[in-house]
Amino acid sequence: MEATSQQQRSLVPGAAFTSFFKEWAILFIFVGLFAACSIFVDGFFNGNNILNIVRQISFLAIIALGQFFVILIGGIDMSASSSIGFTSVLLAGLVHWENVPIAPAILIVLLASVVVGFVNGLMAVYGKIPAFIATLVTMIVLKGVNYLYSNSIPISGLPAGFKNLGAGYIGPIPTPIVILAVIAVACYVFTMHTATGRSIYAVGGNEEASRLSGINTNKIKMIAFILGSLLTAIGAILITSRTMAGQPTLGENMLFDVITVVVLGGTSLSGGRGKVVGVVIAALILGIIDNAMVLLGIGSYWQWIIKGLILAAVVLIDAKTKKD
Question: Is the pLDDT of residue 315 over 90?
Answer without folding.
Answer: no
